[in-house]
Amino acid sequence: MAPDGAPVGDTEVGLSTEELRSLLRLMILSRRLDRECMALQRQGELTVYPPFEGQEAAQVGSAFALGPGDMAFPSFRELAAAVVRGVDVVEYLQYHRGTWHGGPYDPIASGFAPICVPVATQIVHAVGWALGAKLDGKAACSLAYFGDGSASEGDFHEGANLAAVLGAPAVLFCQNNGWAISVPPQEQYVAPIAARAAGYGFPGLRVDGNDVLAVYRATKDAAERARAGHGPTLIEAMTYRIGPHSTADDATRYRTDDEVERWRAFDPIERFRRYLADAGIADDAFVEACWAEAETWVGGIRAELVALGPPPAAEVFDHVFTDPPATLTRQRQEALGDA
Asked: Around Cβ 221, how many Cβ atoms within 10 Å?
């Protein structure tokens, strides 16, 4: 699709009318949820939150291409992908409330691995899972989500090389959102990240990460290739992070408002809305219904989350040492009034 939603080339990706409408609905739900999470953090209900506004097409399009037997390995910014995979959002957000176990959702049931904050480590996890699926004879693949900053880590190289050598059915999905916290692309690499795949001996491609149909098609092809036993693929989805790196970040210190506004013109939701409207697939009434559904949905999530109350303060001390040293015991007594 062109930035204004006009079709470019062959836009047939094998999705039904209802599936196309579902893509738009999921993107709208995800954006409204993202904004609600930002508000929840500012109001003290979440400890920290990494927004993904602007990256809805990259996440929804890629996750929509996965099958029920596949496994997604997220970093810390893939809430939209989690929504597509059916993860319980209230359970997911308990991670951002500081619970020691990182949220109680079932990774196996949802096909969505636990949130991974250490940069790029989920890449090797995804490759390991994919190798296990191959050894078990399963027609399944893994998909590792990571950013442009993660591609500068050693775990990216180790995961990509291992996947190539062992023929692991893995899709390495880089969301290049223009900033590795405060580091721009020109200070990280010269050639496209996707070009690195050639050095490992498997396909790599760049895709417009704000075009949900392009993302879906690229991911679907890569996943089918992996499941068929043809090894890994690297996808570099070019997108943009509209918000800060996280609620602990002040993005105005390293980028301009003009830059952000330029990227708003490539809004993935508005782009796809126009495409579907012009095709006679989704009218204004449908879009308004999606936003209304999103409003009700996030209201329920907020109510459930707030009703949980704060995590028990003792958790700060309970999962540090099997046998706590005297200093930690004293700190616990001072903080909690324990005898």
From this structure: 17
65: CATH: 3.40.50.970
The pLDDT tens digits for 41-72 are: 999 999 999 999 999 999 999 999 999 999 99
Which residues are annotated as catalytic? 241, 245, 254
Residue 191 forms part of a structural domain: yes
Q: Within a domain: residue 28?
A: yes
Residue 339 has pLDDT above 60, yes or no: no
A 10 A CB-CB count for 311 gives: 15
**Is the Cβ–Cβ distance between 213 and 1 less than 8 Å?**
yes
What's the domain count of the chain? Answer: 2
**DSSP code for 287:** H
CA distance from start to end of the chain:
65
Check: CB of residue 134 under 8 Å from CB of residue 168. Answer: yes
Edge to edge, the sheet with strand 71-73 lists: 71-73, 142-147, 170-176, 233-238, 204-208
Domain extent for 317: 312-339
Q: What is the pLDDT of residues 192-206, one digit of tens each?
A: 999 999 999 999 999
Enter the tokens of residue 155: 């775990």
Give the model's pLDDT for residue 312. Answer: 82
Say yes or no: 170 and 290 in one domain. yes
SS3 94: coil
Residues 333 and 232 in one domain: no
Cα 143 to Cα 127: distance, rounded to the nearest angstrom: 9
